[in-house]
Amino acid sequence: MVNCNVFISRLLEPSSKTLLDNNRLLDEFVRMAMPCSLYNGKTNDKNSEILRLAEEFSAKLIHMIEGAYGTLAIYDGILVIFKNNKNNQKESFSYYVFKNLLYGI
Length: 105
Description:
Layout lengths: L3 H6 L6 H5 L2 H11 L5 E5 L2 H11 L4 E6 L3 E6 L2 E10 L2 E10 L6
Antiparallel strand pairs: 1-5, 2-3, 3-4, 4-5
């Protein structure tokens, strides 16, 4: 069983950039973090989804960290990992929404 508070707090550490730059580490993190996820989904338009999630959770986007394989969007209530998926040259993203432990929801 994963301790969600400890596990998700790792996203707020400076090393989260390393996670986003390593596909294997990102896949493993997402797999282990799934029980902590509020929900997840897929999108073809990351920017629209970033705005939609802000509206849905009444959350303000604070900061974004871009990596080679994913993006971490930090809101004042949620954290979202967008994982890059490449299918036949069409860009798509899987995303995973977690509670932001610094602010709560």
